[in-house]
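ARCHIVE CARD
CATEGORY: sequence design from structure
SOURCE FIELD: tokenized fold
FIELD CONTENT:
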């Protein structure tokens, strides 16, 4: 048996540029600001993007299955996305997974931002980002990694399995820089996991891509385990 120690390659966070830092204001002789007669109102809405702090999205199941899930922001109360999927069998309607975004003023009103279609005869997953088709391709029969050419990031990104149980996932670019990570909540009855986005300022189409491709990879791994008798079906 080979006793040579194996070292895990440390992923480096990409140097995303953040917003310019504000210049310091004029000096004052008072060490503390004057007390206000009225308390400041509590903040409302999702937290502002922070380019220096990872953003964490929380994924919760709506019920005991993985057919419907809600993805919230860091405060765990503002829903950002809704994931719905059918059985994913050959006879079920396509797409098999749909990611939508509820309107802030009316959560019942949703806009589809991405879809995923799985195939029993192919290892390729068909993704759509805002109606744009993208191939999510396996990188080999003996690997558990999938890659796609990202319209938002302008480069090829790869989701690959990580962790002791192989249920965690990490998204990297071609330079092995960490973009995002999915941590599975294996022992929770209501939570599927968390998506850590290394750059808290990532938003819009780039964040949509991370969520759609990440959820597609999570569902693909769950289907693979179910088909091999390991449980974790939809």
């Amino acid at each position: 048996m080979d006793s040579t120690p194996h070292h895990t390659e440390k992923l480096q966070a990409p140097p995303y540029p953040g917003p310019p830092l504000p210049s310091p204001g004029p000096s004052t002789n008072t060490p503390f600001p004057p007390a206000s007669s009225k308390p400041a109102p509590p903040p409302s809405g999702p937290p502002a993007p922070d380019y220096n702090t990872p953003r964490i999205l929380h994924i919760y199941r709506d019920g005991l299955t993985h057919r419907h899930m809600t993805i919230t922001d860091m405060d765990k109360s503002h829903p950002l996305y809704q994931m719905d999927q059918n059985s994913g069998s050959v006879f079920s309607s396509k797409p098999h997974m749909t990611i939508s975004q509820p309107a802030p003023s009316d959560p019942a009103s949703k806009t589809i931002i991405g879809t995923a279609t799985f195939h029993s005869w192919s290892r390729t997953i068909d993704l759509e980002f805002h109606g744009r088709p993208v191939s999510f391709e396996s990188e080999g029969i003996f690997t558990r990694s999938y890659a796609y050419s990202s319209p938002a990031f302008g480069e090829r990104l790869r989701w690959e399995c990580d962790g002791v149980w192989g249920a965690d996932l990490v998204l990297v670019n071609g330079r092995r820089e960490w973009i995002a990570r999915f941590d599975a909540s294996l022992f929770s009855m209501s939570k599927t996991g968390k998506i850590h986005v290394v750059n808290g300022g990532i938003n819009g189409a780039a964040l949509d891509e991370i969520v759609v491709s990440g959820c597609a990879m999570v569902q693909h791994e769950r289907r693979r385990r179910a088909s091999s008798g390991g449980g974790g079906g939809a």
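CARD ANNOTATION: Confidence is low (pLDDT under 50) at residues 4-11, 15-40. Helices lie at 204-227.
SHELF: design records, drawer C
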